UniProtKB/TrEMBL annotation, chain A:
Family: Belongs to the binding-protein-dependent transport system permease family.
Membrane-related topology note: Multi-pass membrane protein
Protein name per its UniProtKB record: ABC-type transporter, integral membrane subunit
Cited InterPro entries: BP-dependent_transpt_permease, MetI-like, MetI-like_sf
GO CC aspect terms: plasma membrane
Source species taxonomy: Bacteria, Bacillati, Actinomycetota, Actinomycetes, Pseudonocardiales
Keywords, in A-Z order: Cell membrane, Membrane, Transmembrane, Transmembrane helix, Transport
Ranges where the ABC transmembrane type-1 domain occurs: 89-272
Principal subcellular localisation of the protein: membrane
Gene3D superfamilies: MetI-like
UniProtKB/TrEMBL annotation, chain B:
ABC transmembrane type-1 domain residues: 95-299
InterPro entries given in the database record: BPD_transp_1_N (IPR045621), MetI-like (IPR000515), MetI-like_sf (IPR035906)
Protein name as annotated: ABC-type transporter, integral membrane subunit
Main location: membrane
């Protein structure tokens, strides 16, 4: 759905004066660097942070000013804010990866099978998935939480589930692309078994668009996971996670804004950086 | 045309049935007993048994489903476990705010989308175009609550221009206009990216079309060419995205409403989920899913009417 983006603009580029095009290119380069910086900060914090972090055990004096014991002060629950910021990114990054891997592990084989085997299966599967598409993603998470099914496992499962229909459609489309079909016909005529042609070889060929698609989904998944955590239907409140920390410290927004704004800012940087880079990537491919 | 439209309506009806089955299955049929969930871990077996009886959970599943659907058909969505009031009343008292919020967002959104999309589509690749695209996609990608908190920190905390929350207001009456500024701004910034991008692509394509070049050669005023020919053709492809936006505004404003304590449908749903009030959760989930189905149906029929040859229903 987002792939509609930059496909057509190169066709009209000559209409632009040369100087304007050059300036446009500079702007693009600046945005790319900005994207790398915005992505690197939260990612570095998430990966290296836990090693350096001070203890995040609750029970200290709540909402302390920054001082020698606590470099950034403490939050509502008396936890060290620096520790929370350094530890809280791990869940964001790992759960996002887990949900995406699960979604593609399920959806890519379905997409390949659907593209390979007949129209009836195709119609049925796509019809079924279209019904799934009618369910807003956050709704699925909320209903699961309302019936007591929350926690890491359900969270990953539900987030992965709502990605599946889109990915299946993408894989099916990529597998039916003309450049893909010509080679496959040759292989079939060479006497290869259908599964090697339609699953292994086609799978290899749809890999590049699938990987690009995965990068476009990252910020959506981060957004969905953190929205669930912010609404209190995601992770257990005892887990240290940026969105959970934001939710817990909302009441102290006026007293100690940093406890809310630091984790929120890191989430913003993560999504913004990813998206700037993905845009750049899509444009270069087109 | 009529036959195809009929089939599309049929698909929508099928989706509605599937969605209601889905909501029912998710809330009552999966492992895990509703009564246990509602009463929590401290409940005695007798209490659980009693609540099961009250909720009708000791009856066969198909009978429960028939009851529920029967109620739906008669406009009875059940009663809240927490308050005992009919769910319809709860939804009715919250509907107004959600509709007002959605309308405001659309009123701000549409001119912005048209102006940004038209500019970007006329000057593709220019610095301003790149900045607009980057800014709107980033605004779309950022989680609304995080963006919302940053805006609250700036405009309510730092500058003191706007209230940080609508907490304390009941229904629509207690709300003042300043309370709605930040929520609408977040909704708009969240939806702007995709829409502006689609209009921009539509305009790029329409602008490069042969008949448009011909109109220019004929000496039509540039204004007329842009507003009468390029823009309408450029807007049509974004109708589907617009439908998704309207759907999101009517049924998916959970986060923004929760953030500003606005008493709309979204916060009603979140409250019901947090108190495990299952009849209310079922009703809201069905309402939101049905909104999605209906809005998509309307969008499909509208685009088929506008560009009959381009859309296969």
């Amino acid at each position: 759905m987002t792939t509609l983006g930059p496909l057509t603009e190169l066709a009209v580029a000559p209409a632009m004066p040369r100087r304007a095009r050059l300036r446009g290119r500079t702007t693009r380069r600046v945005l790319r660097v900005l994207g790398w910086v915005l992505l690197a900060v939260p990612l570095l914090v998430a990966v290296v942070g836990p090693v350096l972090a001070p203890s995040t055990a609750p029970g200290g004096v709540p909402l302390q000013q920054p001082g020698p014991g606590h470099l950034l002060g403490t939050d509502v629950l008396g936890r060290d804010l620096l520790g929370l910021v350094l530890v809280g990114g791990t869940t964001v990054v790992s759960l996002t990866l887990a949900s995406l891997v699960l979604a593609y592990a399920v959806a890519v084989p379905i997409g390949l099978l659907v593209a390979a085997r007949g129209r009836i299966l195709e119609g049925l599967t796509i019809g079924l998935l279209d019904v799934l598409l009618a369910l807003p993603s956050l709704l699925v998470l909320m209903v699961l939480a309302a019936t007591g099914r929350n926690g890491i496992g359900w969270l990953v499962l539900a987030v992965a589930l709502v990605q599946v229909p889109y990915v299946v459609r993408l894989v099916r489309g990529a597998a039916a692309a003309p450049s893909c079909l010509a080679t496959l016909e040759a292989m079939t005529m060479g006497g290869e078994p259908w599964w090697r042609v339609r699953i292994v070889e086609t799978g290899r060929r749809v890999l590049p668009p699938v990987l690009v698609d995965a990068t476009t989904r990252v910020s959506g998944v981060v957004g969905l996971l953190s929205a669930a955590n912010f609404l209190g239907v995601g992770l257990d409140p005892a887990v240290v996670d940026w969105a959970v920390v934001v939710d817990q410290n909302m009441t102290a927004l006026f007293l100690r804004p940093s406890a809310v704004l630091l984790p929120a800012g890191l989430l913003v940087a993560l999504c913004a950086g990813t998206n700037l880079l993905v845009d750049d990537l899509l444009e270069r491919r087109a | 045309m009529t036959a195809r439209a009929g089939m599309r309506v049929g698909l929508a009806l099928l989706q509605l049935v599937a969605v209601s089955v889905g909501v029912f299955v998710l809330t009552t049929f999966l492992p895990g007993d509703t009564a246990e969930v509602v009463l929590g871990p401290l409940a005695t077996p007798e209490q659980i048994e009693m609540l099961r009886g009250q909720l009708g959970l000791d009856r066969p599943v198909w009978a429960q489903f028939a009851d529920w659907v029967g109620g739906l058909v008669h406009g009875d969505l059940g009663r809240s476990i927490a308050t005992g009031r009919p769910v319809v009343d709860d939804i009715g008292s919250r509907l107004g705010l959600t509709v007002v919020l959605a309308l405001l967002a659309v009123v701000v959104l549409v001119p912005l989308v048209v102006v940004l999309g038209l500019y970007g589509g006329r000057h593709p690749g220019s610095p301003a175009d790149r900045l607009i695209t980057a800014a709107t996609t980033v605004a779309h990608a950022v989680p609304d609550f995080a963006l919302g908190l940053l805006l609250v920190a700036l405009f309510a905390l730092q500058l003191g221009w706007l209230p940080a929350t609508a907490a304390g207001s009941v229904g629509l009456s207690g709300l003042t206009a300043p309370m709605l500024v930040l929520p609408v701004a977040i909704l708009v910034s969240n939806q702007l990216g995709r829409l502006a991008r689609q209009v921009r692509i539509g305009v790029v394509e329409a602008d490069a079309a042969e008949h448009v070049a011909h109109l220019r050669r004929l000496g039509l005023a540039e204004r007329t060419v842009l507003l009468r020919h390029v823009l309408p053709a450029g807007v049509v492809p974004s109708l589907q995205q617009f439908a998704r936006t309207v759907d999101g505004l009517l049924g998916g404003v959970l986060v923004v409403e929760a953030l500003f304590a606005l008493p709309g449908l979204g916060s009603g749903f979140v409250a019901a989920v947090q108190t495990r009030d299952l009849p209310v959760v079922q009703a809201y989930a069905l309402l939101f899913a049905a909104t999605t189905v209906v809005v998509n149906l309307v969008a499909d029929l509208a685009s088929a009417r506008l560009v009959p040859q381009a859309v296969r229903l």
